[in-house]
Specification:
Number of strands of chain A: 11
Shape of chain B: globular
Number of helices of chain B: 0
Helix content of chain A: under 10%
Distance between the termini of chain B: 33 Å
Order of helices and strands of chain B: EEEEEEEEEEE
Oligomer: heterodimer
Number of strands of chain B: 11
Order of helices and strands of chain A: EEEEEEEEEEE
Largest sheet of chain B: 7 strands, mixed
Distance between the termini of chain A: 36 Å
Chain lengths: 110, 114
């Protein structure tokens, strides 16, 4: 079992729709959770972080965390073609390294 | 530009050659991380420093790889006797608060070993 798992996609949504990206993790001691966006050929760009159970909203982005289910998700409302990218889920255990999933490719169709 | 800076952006080398990459973290960030990313995969952790101390190394970091952060500022990652399997994007990240551990990435160094 991989430590952090994501569906590789591609996930295709029409412009203006809600994109839902999911991530599960295996280490119950994980304490902080991150979503990075990565455009092709570029480096990861931090878009959201969450530490506590529940929802955290920032503009069109909402991160959701359920530690009991070991599940973290990212919702993108009003998806735009510019949101087309790979979204990486990352989990931190004890203040050091991040463990990344393989990423979910999102395609927003005009 | 006050972000994480990596140099060079691209490196093409022949198998068996040594290469060295440099990373300058965000000013005042005391933690510096190295990751490696291959096509279609998420970044994989290699090693990290807190100030000048190397706190953890991945088993991925074979004896051909070495990293330093001599004065707790910039860091170098050296790969000796490069192999074709070393071809990847090498990413550097830095963070300030270990409790929150929000890591910001540089643009990366893309290595191609011929």
């Amino acid at each position: 079992q991989k430590e952090v798992e994501q569906n590789s996609g591609p996930l295709s949504v029409p412009e203006g729709a809600i994109a839902s990206l999911n991530c599960t993790y295996s280490d119950r001691g994980s304490q902080s959770f991150f979503w990075y966006r990565q455009y092709s050929g570029k480096s990861p760009e931090l878009i959201m972080f969450i530490y506590s159970n529940g929802d955290k909203e920032d503009g069109r982005f909402t991160a959701q965390l359920n530690k009991a289910s070991q599940y973290v998700s990212l919702l993108i409302r009003d998806s735009q073609p510019s949101d087309s990218a790979t979204y990486l889920c990352a989990v931190n255990h004890q203040g050091g390294k991040l463990i990344f999933g393989q990423g979910t490719e999102l395609s927003v169709k005009p | 530009d006050t972000g994480v800076s990596q140099d060079p952006r691209h490196k093409i080398t022949k198998r068996g050659q040594n290469v060295t990459f440099r990373c300058d973290p965000i000013s005042e960030h005391n933690r510096l991380y190295w990751y490696r990313q291959t096509l279609g995969q998420g970044p994989e952790f290699l090693t990290y420093f807190q100030n000048e101390a190397q706190l953890e190394k991945s088993r991925l970091l074979s004896d051909r790889f070495s990293a330093e952060r001599p004065k707790g500022s910039f860091s170098t990652l050296e790969i000796q006797r490069t192999e074709q399997g070393d071809s990847a994007m090498y990413l550097c990240a830095s963070s300030f608060d270990p409790a929150k551990n929000i890591q910001y990435f540089g643009a990366g160094t893309r290595l191609s070993v011929l």
